[in-house]
Amino acid sequence: MTNKYRETLINEIIDRELNMFLAVKNRGGTSQCQELPESFRIMREMTHGVLPNSFLNSYKYDLKQAEKEGRNFMTEKYALMESLIPTISNSPQIKEIVQIESEWRKEVAAQFPRSVQPDGHESFCRYLGCELQTYSAATIIEYYDYMKSAQQELRNLVRERYELLMRKLGYASLQDCETKLTAR
Fold first, then answer.
1. Which element (helix H / strand E) includes 177?
2. What is the mean pLDDT of the segment spanning 122-135?
3. How many CB atoms lie within 10 A of CB 150?
4. What is the pLDDT of residue 136?
5. Which of 47, 75, 114, 162 is most buried (most C-beta within 10 Å)?
C-alpha cells in the first residue's frame, strides 16, 4: 500500500474522530480544546502515525460501526476518564498495552524531561486505558500484537510518536526540541 493510501486512511480516521470530538457535550459547554481542531488533528496524527495499516483499517471499521450505532467514542472515552460510566471492556490486553506504553513513556520523559513532562504519566495511562476501551476486540488485538512486535524489535512507539510530533511542530527531532528548551 502506498504512502498516499496511508495518508488518506489516517486523514479519514481523524476526520471521523474530529466529528465525534466536536459533538461531545461537556458539562460546562464547549471546552477550550474543542475550539482548536487543528491541535486535535496534530495530536491524533501523532497517535496514529506510528501504527500499522492493519490497525488503522480495523479502527476505521470501528469508527464506522460506532457512527451507525449512534455511539461517540470521544464521549465514551471522556466519560470513562471521569468515572461517569462503567468499564466498557475488560480485555486483558488493555492492561498490558498500557503497561508497555507506560514504560516507554517513562523512558522518553527521563531522557527528554523538558519536551515530555514526567509528571504527566498518570494522566497518560488513564487516557490510553480509557481510549482502548472504545476499540473493538479485533482492534485491541491488532494494537496489542503491534505493541508486542515493536517491543521485541526494541522500538519505543512513544518516542516515535514524539519524534513525529516534533517534526510537525517545526523541530528537526525530539532532541532538537529538548536542546532548544534547555537553552531558554
1. helix 174-183
2. 95
3. 18
4. 97
5. 162
pLDDT in tens, 43-59: 999 999 999 999 999 99
Residue 161 CA, distance from chain mean position: 9
Q: How far apart are CA 58 and CA 168, in angstroms?
A: 25
Q: How many C-beta neighbours within 10 Å does residue 105 have?
A: 23
Domain ranges of the chain: 3-183
Separation of alpha carbons 42 and 58, rounded Å: 21
All cell numbers assigned to 144 = 496489542
Cβ burial, residue 91 (10 Å; 0-12/13-18/19+): middle
The model carries a pTM of 0.91
In the chain, DSSP finds a helix count (H) and a strand count (E) of 9, 0
Mean pLDDT throughout 66-79? 94
Closest CA to 170 of 3, 42, 6: 42
The alpha helices in 87-120, defined as continuous H runs, are 92-111
Report the run of H or E that residue 132 belongs to, with start and end: helix 121-133
CA 169 – CA 160 distance, rounded (Å): 14
pLDDT digits 0-9 by tens, 89-104: 999 999 999 999 999 9
